[in-house]
Amino acid sequence: MNEARESQESNTYDVVVVGAGPVGQNVTDRARAAGLTVAVVERELVGGECSYWACVPSKALLRPVIAVADARRVDGARQAVSGRLDIGRVFARRNHYVSDWDDSGQAEAVKSMGADLFRGHGRIDGPRRVTVTRDDGACLTLTARHAVAIATGSRPLLPDIPGVQEAKPWTNRHGTDSSTVPARLAIVGGGGVGVEMATCWQGLGSQVTLLARRGLIPRLEPFAGELVARSLTDAGVDVRTGTRITAVRRPDPSGPVTLTLDDGSELEADEVMFATGRTPGTDDIGLETVGLTPGTWLEADTTCLVSGVDGAWLYAAGDVNHRALLTHQGKYQARTAGDAIAARAAGLPLDDGPWGDHATTADQHAVPQVFFTDPEAAAVGLTAEQAIQAGHRVRTVDLDFNAAQGANLYADNYPGHARLVVDLDREVLLGVTFVGPGVSELLHSATVAVVGEVPLKRLRHAIACFPTVSEIWLFLLAACQRDRG
């Protein structure tokens, strides 16, 4: 495929996008929809981390594990579950959804937008210029008339402890592209990646030990991590919270790895995976040529315009601006950035006020997130503690899901809990958290309620169908009304 048309005069475009993952593709799509010419630069696979090593492969691996767990919750169905997962077919299914790590389909999608794709390492080379170095060493320079958009994402952050690099640990990439099940897997980190990978690999047959310095998924309401920890323990995971790793050693590259814990004890495993955070993909993209510091998160305004750069031409969307390291939030930012670039290019006014057409307000107030554990944990908006710290007067409304008959029909003894965080002064929802099987599909209703600031007295007229899991809304809102007296 001719991925970059040679007819573009002097390699000058209206917009140059660095990074062709979901974020870069969304910036491209919006800019092209406005009639702007776009060059897209990608040094790895078109489709990015999400498509090949994060969201897509992890959910492809998790779904068979969760499907079996769901069947075992229903009497009559659990008796039909026998034997173990077909591991070969699970990996083949994963490979299908990542297109066997072949990005030609996504490259064609970029081309179908009318953009030119340049493969190679893109680096800013002064204002509105990006130099692309191809694998063969050849270089070319792209010039942007209006904007350069950075969408280079993030990568795993390994802790600075002795022996880590030499032990060649797994990261999220090894956790999602491996086709070998280790007998013993130690996972360090209790955030979203850690709990999902613990769910996945325990279900695939590993003996998993999950080590976390705090509780699990600590950015959610405390009960979410507690319920997930209990379920992982019931499934056979050795969950250890309040634990820190002080050293790692692996004398034989093909042998086991030994972790030294902060209490002086040791843990041996066949593989160790670190899920201990992310670092921005900005270390070698030429930030120093425009007065910024390489390897740092990029500060940006509500239109994703980077602060501290003269001329209003550099944008940062997705992980690189550190607002919410989630694909759907990055795509949301990218759509805003693309629209803002187009408006500025045309000299049009920007609606960049709260909830405006050119504002990424949801990143501050209503970020939805799901952890595909068993049970799932889903939340949007603020936790009770976050709301109080932000100065709101709040009350919380809590219910177990078994209050709703639809939940009990979905799973015998449905294991789940829900919480609403209510703004006492405005009688709207500031946050919602659900934990339970299948609750990811409830989250958008909560997101609409939080984003729309729907008054509780109006929200109670949004009737949940009987008998569905979403009937929990009826009982939560009734409890809100009782609490008001």
Verbal overview:
This protein has 485 residues and is of the alpha/beta class. It has three domains: 9-47 and 103-155 and 280-362, FAD/NAD(P)-binding domain (3-Layer(bba) Sandwich), CATH 3.50.50.60; 164-276, FAD/NAD(P)-binding domain (3-Layer(bba) Sandwich); 375-484, FAD/NAD-linked reductase, C-terminal dimerisation domain (Enolase-like, domain 1, 2-Layer Sandwich), CATH 3.30.390. It contains 16 helices and 21 strands. The protein has helices at residues 22-33, 48-53, 55-72, 87-97, 104-112, 164-167, 172-177, 192-204, 222-235, 327-346, 362-365, 384-389, 405-410, 443-451, 456-459, 472-484, and strands spanning 12-18, 38-42, 116-119, 121-124, 129-133, 139-150, 154-156, 184-188, 207-212, 238-241, 245-249, 257-261, 266-269, 271-274, 278-280, 314-316, 368-371, 376-381, 394-400, 417-423, 428-436. Strands 1, 2, 3, 4, 5, 6 and 16 form a seven-stranded mixed sheet that branches. Strands 17-18-21-20-19 form a five-stranded antiparallel sheet, sandwiched between helices. A hairpin with a 5-residue loop joins β5 (129-133) and β6. The longest helix has 20 residues, at 327-346. It is globular and about 70 Å long.
Write the layout of secondary structure elements.
Layout: E1 12-18, H1 22-33, E2 38-42, H2 48-53, H3 55-72, H4 87-97, H5 104-112, E3 116-119, E4 121-124, E5 129-133, E6 139-150, E7 154-156, H6 164-167, H7 172-177, E8 184-188, H8 192-204, E9 207-212, H9 222-235, E10 238-241, E11 245-249, E12 257-261, E13 266-269, E14 271-274, E15 278-280, E16 314-316, H10 327-346, H11 362-365, E17 368-371, E18 376-381, H12 384-389, E19 394-400, H13 405-410, E20 417-423, E21 428-436, H14 443-451, H15 456-459, H16 472-484
Parallel strand pairs: 1-2, 1-6, 2-3, 6-16, 8-9, 8-14, 9-10
Antiparallel strand pairs: 4-5, 5-6, 7-15, 11-12, 12-13, 17-18, 18-21, 19-20, 20-21
